[in-house]
């Protein structure tokens, strides 16, 4: 025994010596062709099998560098790559005998083309190097395309939603870069809506994008990023554009843009105003009045909109940036629509109501964000401060009979937040992370309804003049966390701990103005809720980042303490503690060089907040009010998903399929009481179960002969839920089927077609006796024809056909026709367009919306035929 104890230290020393032999210690110098040192050259340790960067460093003032890694070193598996601005890249494969390297870089200016050599051939539209796909913009640009979004939505493997969200292989991107810089954060529609196609060189997709450079190759990501590369000529100057249009009946649209995409400075600054039906919700994130599904919002929206946006990024060093994003938006909007709703209950009962709505919306919003980012292979620090203020008023008249009900609401939301995040790496093995997030917001609201509503509920069935509903929510929260990660070659073990603090106050009161001008307060319609929540959380994370497989296993545990009480509802109070366990798993495996299969699992425990537990009733409209007292633990959901990504880059073919199943245990059930003049919603502590399952698939292919992309997608989803309406409990199964087709073939040089079609079928059914099964089918077909009779002259004609068919009813159809003539001048990129929208002067559009056991028919009043003349030019 003593001998074994004596030999133990020797054994440990021997193991340490063996481990040190596997350590990698490579130093060297980087000079130019004259032997002068090149400082700040990027030196990376590259794994040859997948060209992945493992470690990054930079040369000092004397051109020296040192690569010191715990990577398990095997000859012919790693390489050192050197990259310096103005010099050609160099790479050397490491051997066991190497310890000191010397790189003599060749300047780009020293490289001369051999005389008499001519290289011919077409550039491939899509090229993949490592995890980066590069789409050549020229191959996906048509002569009438104007903005970056026109290119992106035609790229195979990529789709752009109606809300502007970009997805790659079915998953939303995690970052949007312009020349490698994150100028816009999640408001990247500012770029897609404003950057001209003439300035775009390439669109890159960075698969498994890790935004923190020092974690690249260490902590993987399951999401991709988009990087936009500009043409060289577009990076040397400011890009200024003016666009103006006017038409009959009195419409205008004015835009001024100033953009810069230089190495040290990037900017997208815009000023816009219009009354032609276009709001700026995609660029601001602030939505106003909602339009109908299926057709463009500018067909129904009467507006006067203004937007001023400033987005500027200054690179202090190659890895340090200061960013300022500011927007001011002013909206005056109006829509007119008629709504008919029918709720079908088991048996012969049904609830029916009809209303005519005239809505006006006025809003002014300001958003300011200031950020500092240091993101290098050795350091990471990010600090962002945000301030936003949004004032809006909404007024309108609702006709349910001969006399209207006037609804006027106003709200002011003020929000301030700050986030701070930093990473520190020690000896390439130890990573320490600190994050803190602070937020404060307040949003007073007032709803006024004239004449007074719900007399039988609020005022003993006595008519009165006016109903006033006031509410305000204050929120103060702070999250702090510290994480430690230990790197073991391809494995990373992470430990995180932190504290979340939240304080909320909800105040509300309904007051009634009587015929005598006296003010009264109805019983049960006041709230003064104080909410506190403290959460201590910890998480263990295991990550594996290999060539063929990637694994992220998270095991978070949190101890939550909550307490709330309502000054006006004595029984509305509770406090308690809960231990919450929410594991997650992501695994993916490369079945081939370009094919990946993946699996995901999450367990989510949804807990209540102040807006789910208030006990006093709050009025939300002329016929509806709610009172929620949900349990703290609202639901527990398991989500299983898996999929397969398939691509052949050389053939420009992309395909993906995903399956999801999510069983949920709910600890409460909403009870809805429906009457012809009232809707009341309450939360009851009834345990029930729901299920959701679905599959999505998408295939896209670039056809070289036609210079076009064909995309086909399909989705099937089913949900099973329980409903409690008018004291009747029943289970409902809903099924949604959708298919879509997008193709833009260029048949001849002077002829181009556009086809974009969607089909949706929605059905609901129940085993309950007397339940009336619902089914609606909708078709949406957009087609267009573009002729180029002359080099710079074009004629476009488009039609949009919509059809809705509800079981037992006749089909509802609409057809919109639009056209324009356009001529492009060579100098100053001058463009002139004469357009006519809604040629047939269609003045109404009807859509059918089906719920679990309801059908809504909505008829919108449309803008008239418009003829406009537009010009756009650069200066």
UniProtKB/TrEMBL annotation:
<feature type="region of interest" description="Disordered">
    <location>
        <begin position="391"/>
        <end position="411"/>
    </location>
</feature>
<keyword id="KW-0732">Signal</keyword>
<feature type="compositionally biased region" description="Low complexity">
    <location>
        <begin position="391"/>
        <end position="403"/>
    </location>
</feature>
<feature type="signal peptide">
    <location>
        <begin position="1"/>
        <end position="19"/>
    </location>
</feature>
<dbReference type="InterPro" id="IPR008969">
    <property type="entry name" value="CarboxyPept-like_regulatory"/>
</dbReference>
<protein>
    <recommendedName>
        <fullName>Outer membrane protein beta-barrel domain-containing protein</fullName>
    </recommendedName>
</protein>
């Amino acid at each position: 025994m003593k001998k074994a104890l004596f030999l133990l230290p020797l054994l440990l020393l021997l193991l340490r010596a063996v481990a040190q032999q596997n350590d990698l210690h490579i130093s060297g110098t980087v000079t130019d062709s004259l032997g002068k040192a090149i400082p700040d050259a990027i030196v990376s340790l590259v794994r040859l099998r997948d060209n992945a960067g493992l470690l990054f460093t930079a040369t000092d003032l004397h051109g020296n560098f040192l690569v010191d890694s715990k990577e398990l070193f095997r000859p012919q598996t790693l390489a050192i790559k050197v990259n310096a601005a103005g010099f050609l890249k160099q790479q050397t494969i490491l051997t066991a005998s190497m310890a000191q390297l010397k790189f003599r870089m060749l300047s780009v200016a020293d490289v001369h083309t051999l005389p008499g050599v001519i290289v011919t051939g077409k550039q491939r539209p899509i090229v993949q190097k490592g995890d980066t796909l590069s789409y050549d913009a020229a191959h996906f640009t048509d002569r009438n395309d104007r903005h970056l979004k026109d290119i992106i939505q035609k790229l195979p493997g990529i789709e752009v939603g109606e809300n502007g969200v970009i997805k790659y292989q079915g998953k939303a991107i995690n970052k949007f870069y312009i020349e490698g810089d994150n100028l816009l954060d999640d408001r990247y529609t500012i770029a897609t809506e404003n950057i001209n196609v003439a300035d775009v060189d390439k669109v890159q997709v960075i698969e498994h994008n890790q935004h923190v450079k020092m974690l690249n190759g260490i902590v993987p990501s399951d999401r991709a990023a988009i990087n936009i590369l500009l043409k060289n000529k577009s990076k040397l100057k400011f890009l200024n554009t003016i666009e103006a249009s006017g038409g009959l009946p009195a419409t205008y649209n004015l835009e001024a843009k100033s953009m810069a995409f230089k190495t040290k400075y990037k900017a997208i600054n815009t000023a816009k105003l219009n009354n032609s039906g276009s709001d700026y919700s995609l660029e601001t994130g602030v939505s106003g009045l909602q339009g109908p599904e299926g057709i463009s919002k500018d067909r129904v929206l009467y507006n006067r909109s203004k937007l001023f946006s400033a987005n500027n990024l200054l690179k202090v060093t190659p890895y340090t940036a200061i960013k300022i994003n500011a927007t001011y938006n002013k909206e005056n909007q109006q829509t007119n629509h008629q709504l008919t709703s029918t709720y079908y209950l088991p048996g012969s009962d049904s609830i029916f109501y009809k209303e005519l709505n005239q809505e006006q919306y006025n809003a002014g919003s300001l958003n300011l964000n200031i950020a500092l980012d240091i993101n290098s292979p050795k350091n990471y620090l990010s600090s962002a401060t945000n301030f936003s203020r949004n004032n809006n008023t909404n007024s309108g008249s609702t006709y349910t009979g001969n006399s209207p009900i006037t609804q006027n609401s106003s709200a002011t939301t003020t929000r301030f937040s700050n986030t701070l995040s930093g990473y520190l790496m020690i000896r390439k093995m130890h990573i320490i992370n600190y994050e803190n997030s602070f937020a404060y917001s307040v949003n007073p609201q007032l709803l006024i309804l004239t004449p007074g509503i719900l007399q039988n509920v609020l005022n003993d069935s006595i008519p009165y003049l006016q109903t006033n509903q006031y509410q305000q929510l204050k929120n103060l929260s702070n999250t702090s966390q510290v994480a430690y990660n230990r790197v073991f070659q391809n494995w990373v073990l992470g430990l995180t701990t932190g504290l979340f603090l939240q304080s909320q106050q909800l105040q509300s009161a309904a007051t009634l103005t009587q015929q005598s001008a006296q003010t009264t307060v109805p019983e049960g319609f006041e709230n003064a809720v104080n909410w506190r929540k403290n959460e201590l959380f910890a998480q263990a994370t295991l990550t594996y980042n290999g060539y063929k497989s990637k694994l992220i296993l998270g095991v978070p545990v949190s101890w939550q303490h909550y307490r709330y009480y309502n000054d006006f509802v004595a029984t509305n109070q509770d406090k308690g503690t809960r231990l919450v366990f929410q594991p997650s798993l992501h695994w993916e495996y490369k079945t081939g060089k370009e094919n990946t299969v993946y699996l995901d699992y999450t367990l989510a425990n949804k807990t209540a907040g102040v807006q789910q537990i208030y006990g006093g009733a709050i009025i939300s409209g002329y016929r509806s009010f709610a009172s929620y007292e949900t349990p703290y633990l609202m639901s527990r959901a398991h989500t299983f998903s898996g999929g397969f990504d398939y691509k052949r880059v050389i053939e420009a073919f992309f395909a993906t399929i995903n399956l999801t199943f999510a069983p949920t245990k709910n600890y409460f059930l909403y009870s809805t009481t429906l009457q012809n003049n009232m809707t009341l919603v309450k939360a009851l502590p009834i345990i029930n179960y729901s299920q959701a399952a679905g599959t999505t698939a998408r295939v896209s292919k670039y056809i070289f002969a036609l210079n076009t992309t064909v995309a086909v997608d399909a989705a099937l989803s089913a949900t099973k839920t329980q409903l409690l309406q008018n004291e009747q409990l029943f289970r409902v199964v809903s099924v949604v089927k959708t298919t879509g087709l997008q193709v833009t073939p260029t048949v001849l040089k002077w002829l181009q077609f556009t086809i974009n079609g969607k089909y949706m079928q929605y059905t609901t059914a129940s085993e309950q006796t007397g339940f009336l099964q619902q089914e609606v089918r909708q078709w949406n077909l957009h087609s267009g024809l573009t002729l180029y009779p002359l080099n710079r002259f074009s004629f476009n004609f488009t039609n949009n056909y919509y059809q809705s068919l509800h079981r037992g009813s006749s089909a509802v159809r609409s057809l919109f026709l639009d056209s324009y003539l356009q001529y492009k001048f060579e100098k100053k990129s001058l463009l002139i367009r004469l357009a006519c929208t809604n040629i047939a002067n269609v003045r109404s559009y009807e859509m059918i919306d089906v719920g679990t056991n309801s059908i809504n028919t909505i008829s919108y009043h449309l803008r008239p035929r418009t003829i406009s003349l537009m010009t756009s030019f650069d200066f």
